[in-house]
Specification:
Layout (H helix, E strand, L loop, with lengths): L5 E5 L12 E11 L11 E12 L9 E10 L1
Antiparallel strand pairs: 1-2, 2-3, 3-4
Length: 76
Amino acid sequence: MFRDNYFTTGIPFNQPINQKTADAKFQTSIRQRLTKSILPFNTFLDVTYTQKSFWDIYRTSLPFPDNNFNPGLSIG
């Protein structure tokens, strides 16, 4: 695991459930080591990927108005 992985949803307490109030958000994150050999300073080369998406649950067309993709390389 690289960053937090979660799925969350909810509605406002003072409004009914409808197309404008029901949304969800989730994030998936991974880290994979690329090298088995130890690099200088006792480090390894990793590839990382995180995706955060906002989901408009009741929308049939374009249900994900915002997707954030964050790939990367790290030494750790």
